[in-house]
């Protein structure tokens, strides 16, 4: 039964790779940048999860280009920083921006996937269990964070995530 499940999920992953465009996979491995106006243009960059930091996080740069804060989209510190030095009006505009909302939702989906993976008590050092976990993440987020055939990258990411 477990072999059938693994085979089924493997096919789902491979099918998913063919259905998602290369640009979606490239976007998942990178970042998204936008600006907000508040006494000048504030640059905002949302970095996507990696195996080093499995959370979406936001970098905020003042109108002069100086980074003034970094924070995970779940509100926890990222890179040892928060958005405490960012003016409240700027933070509000950032959090109301459609791109911020989109990736905050993706982080929530990723958190739910992590809970499902933990509930299944998968051994994320075993390739078969990593494939199951990949299926859970892709089903929850509709995002490939790494190429589907890079089991090592996925394994590192999933272990960091859970």
Structure description:
By secondary structure, the protein is of the alpha+beta class. 51% of the residues lie in helices and 15% in strands. The protein has six helices and four strands. It has a four-stranded antiparallel sheet, covered by helices on one side. α1 crosses α5, α4 runs antiparallel to α5 and α5 packs across α6. The longest helix is centred in the C-terminal third of the chain and has 23 residues. 29% of the residues are buried.
Query: Strands of the largest sheet, in order across it?
Result: 1-2-3-4
Give a short account of the largest sheet. 4 strands, antiparallel
Radius of gyration: 17 Å
Distance linking N and C termini? 25 Å
> What is the percent of helical residues?
40-55%
How does the overall form come out from the CA principal axes? elongated
**Structural class by helix and strand composition:** alpha+beta
Give the strand content. 15-25%
Number of helices: 6
- The count of β-strands is 4
| Unreliable residue runs | 17-28
- What letter string, H or E per element, gives the SSE order? HHEEEEHHHH
Mean pLDDT across residues: 82
